[in-house]
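Below is how a single chain appears once it has passed through the pipeline. First comes the sequence as given, then the structure the pipeline wrote out for it. We keep one example in the README because the format questions we get most often are answered faster by looking than by reading.
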Amino acid sequence: MSVDVLLLCQCRSYLEPTEVFKGEVEETVVKVKMVVTNLSALKDIYEKYRKKLAEFFKHGEPKEWEFAPVLVFHRYDKFLERIQLIYVISVVNCFVM
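Resulting structure:
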């Protein structure tokens, strides 16, 4: 199983999809914000080290990663978009109530 699939499974388990819209809005906002923060941080770390890849090669030509990030992160990015939408909806509901 790939890292992104494991991470998404962990996020789904933590958020308990059936409880996201049934539970207290404040609790949902906190949980969803944590997931968004962690998923965004992982993507930021990937980008940071991808840009610094040449620094890790002290001798010789650096070997760039040979995969297209869009292929690797497609499912991840779509999941993050959905979670961010849930977060926005939760925050709006928090202010309305």
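Residues 3-52+73-96 form one domain.

See the next section for the split statistics.
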